[in-house]
């Protein structure tokens, strides 16, 4: 990813507004989305378009790694950002004003129960989302480069 490329923000109204505020304030407005629930900005490369795409996601920590959940509210399909990182796992992450490159990977079957519990503690609705879909909702580990 290069900093000179244009990044397309998530098209949904409130998410796009959230991203704009987050970027304009280096996360001072938007990092804490709800009390005790924090968000980061994730930029992936579109698997078909090749364009950079940015979205805001709730995150947790696992040691030095960041965790995000590809829930899409329990929809039957994975979110586009997850499909993008499967095609190209090099991503850009912004937490508050800090931006860094990370390598994204899906949590292994062995680590998933632990990292799922971490994320469900932060956002209990993840457990509800999992009951709405037949797919196993992935937990993504973002390993800083």
Structural class: alpha+beta
The fraction of residues assigned to DSSP E strands is 35-45%
Give me the strand/helix succession: EHEEEEEHEEHHE
Q: What is the approximate shape?
A: globular
Radius of gyration: 14 Å
Instruction: Write down the domain tally.
Output: 1
Assign a percent range to the helix content.
25-40%
Mean pLDDT: 94
Poorly predicted sequence stretches spanning 5 or more consecutive residues: none
Would you state the CATH class? Mainly Beta
Total number of beta strands: 9
Count of helical regions: 4
- CATH fold description: Pnp Oxidase, Chain A
List the keywords.
145 residues, Pnp Oxidase, Chain A, 9 strands, globular, alpha+beta, 4 helices, nine-stranded mixed sheet
Show the helix and strand layout.
Layout: E1 7-9, H1 13-24, E2 32-34, E3 37-45, E4 52-58, E5 60-62, E6 65-69, H2 80-87, E7 90-95, E8 98-106, H3 112-122, H4 125-131, E9 139-144
Kindly describe this structure.
It catalyses: oxidized coenzyme F420-(gamma-L-Glu)(n) + a quinol + H(+) = reduced coenzyme F420-(gamma-L-Glu)(n) + a quinone. It comes from Micromonospora krabiensis. Pfam families: F420H2_quin_red (PF04075). InterPro entries: F420H2_quin_Rdtase, Split_barrel_FMN-bd. Belongs to the F420H(2)-dependent quinone reductase family. This protein has 145 residues and is of the alpha+beta class. The chain has a single domain, classed as Pnp Oxidase, Chain A, CATH 2.30.110.10. The chain has four helices and nine strands. Strands 1, 2, 3, 4, 5, 6, 7, 8 and 9 form a nine-stranded mixed sheet that branches. The longest helix has 12 residues. The protein is globular and about 40 Å long. The mean pLDDT is 94.
